[in-house]
Amino acid sequence: MKQWIVIILSLLAVGCSKSVDERADDYVEASFTLCGSDVKSYSQGDDGKIRVRCENNSYFTVKDQATLAYMHELNGAYCEGEGFESFNERQRYFTFVCNGEKRFNIPK
Questions:
Q1: Residue 64 is part of which domain span?
Q2: Most C-beta atoms within 10 A of its C-beta, which of 6, 9, 15, 44?
Q3: What is the pLDDT of residues 30-77, one digit of tens each?
Q4: In a domain, 7, yes or no
Q5: What's the domain count of the chain?
């Protein structure tokens, strides 16, 4: 019985390696990079999506960590690292506007 408790506790520890606050810090840190300015507001809705509004009134929503990583790639490739004015994930594509008015629809 003690072996099962040890196994369950070790699985829980591995599954929860990052706290909610640490994951939120990751998103906030990344959002500063993607805004191209300071973050005005940052929230997570009941639907699980992260919503970020930047000081320059840009905004974007992030579905998960994989989307956030892909946003960094898109920012470098299409926005020349300047950040987004807006970013939305649709069912089959990403829609975003770079700081500087470039608009894109990229298939997933």
A1: 21-82
A2: 44
A3: 667 778 777 788 787 788 787 888 888 888 877 877 787 888 889 889
A4: no
A5: 1
